[in-house]
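Q: N-6 DNA methylase, please. Structure only.
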Amino acid sequence: MENSGAFRELVSTLSNRGVPDAYRAALSLLAETHGGAPQQPSQLFLSETYVGSVLEATKAHLVEVLDWVSLSDTARRRGEAMLTPDIAQLLADLVIEGGHSSAIVLQDPLCLVASRLARMGVCVEQYCSDLEVPKLCAAIASMPAWTVVERDVYGYGSQSNQAAGARMDESLPCTSPSTAERDKGVLIAALPLVPGVSGGVHAKQLPYAASEDLRAIMFRYGATIARLIVLVPSSMLYRTGKAAEFRRDLLSSGLVEAVLELPNGTTPLATHQYSVLVLRTTRNPAAEESVFVMNLPERASPATRGRGRRVEVESSCELAAQVIDRRTEGTGNGRLLTYRQIQETGSLLPRMLLGGTCVDAYNTGSLSTLRDLVHIVRPTPLPEGARRPRAAVTTDSIIRALPYIRYVETTEGKEDGSEYGRAHETTADLEARDIVIVVKGTVGAVGLVEQPTNGLVVLPNSCLLLRAKSAAEAKALYLYLKSPTGIERLRLIVTGSTVRNIRIADLGGLAVPSLSNRACELAERALQAINEKTVEIQRLEGERAQLLGNSLEEMSKISD
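A: Structure for N-6 DNA methylase:
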């Protein structure tokens, strides 16, 4: 960031003199100076020589200046920090390695991508509903190939930063280009196109808004470009409903080239994970109905970044070339997966596709999927007004189970209404060797049922039952889910932005080892020994509590 020093000093000077939105005021001052009609320097008691030197430094290092601006609190409050410098560099690298000579850029209010591409010689058409900052940046850069057009994010409008004679027709950029021109074009966007659609009560709208926007821009710009590189919320890649239908349409159309998941902590929106989706606009027979998937590498951030970011996505020309060429050798964990493998998983999220799910089971005979070994049973809602069962399983009792779950009483009295079912309360009839797993909130906690309940017990609706098809395999499967490998594979299929959860489809596709007779016998002996120790520990804890109670009672008598 040292290259932005002159601009930072100017912003600090303006801020100290009470100028609001100092970074915008600084950009405006420099743009006016570049245009030969400076009006503000004398009003701000700044010499034209000083402003001119700052202009030259800013023009030479515009990318670094805009990177610094994007990390400011002001930019984040204004909703302008949707992109971050590391993500912008990744997108720019993908454009360059893709051999594109022209780019349409949407949703880049601080020009982090546009400025990089323009500096690299790419012809940029930037579309935005708020023309102020992009127009100022393009004026300072003074690059004929960088056009800023004031339109809404869906491409409708008519104002440009270019002089008279520039293309201004309403159909821009949707005229019919030659095949050679189209093959060189790419579109960059961050979805959803309308900022603020996520967060609070609207959080669940995010994946669906993003998929609708992606469909709209493909329809709007598809005839003018060869490739789309878009930032999408990761939830769009695994959610059901309309999002799933849209994913199936993309796959069946043969348009998905690559899916790249950003590391935790680098997301453009604080509460949501994001991924990069690389799409073709026409089917490519050479792709052989496969998709390149990768978890992108991360590196430590040189300092605490926006909203406490301590990591950033690592990008390089080599990594971008690997993605564009869809090469599985080299750095990273990139893999080519067929459409059939992806459809088996029901998700496009790399974490699920690469994290020990049914794709691995599909590729090797040493693994099975969880749904091959168990029936997954949901707890059933307790009818309104029905009496509550007297016993309940709690999340805490599942977490503490070693290995067997202990029950708690539910009914405290007959006059307080506690004997009747509550809203959203669920129950289950547990069988011996059932595995209870928490799939929402404290995800991954598991407990084993020792004896059948012979009736309903209250079971949290955040839990599922795994009922082994072979009773002999239940205990071995329980130990596997408690093992480091099992815990890691469960972690990789956890989704959700506000509440962590595991989808039933992903749980059923979890890759688990084929359980041999020897493994089952070992698990039986191990759990018996563990349970004996657990019972002994509980007895000792009871004796300790009794001793403490007796001693406190004696002390109270002495005090009296």
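A: Brief note, in case it's useful. The chain has three domains: 1-60, 61-354, 373-515.
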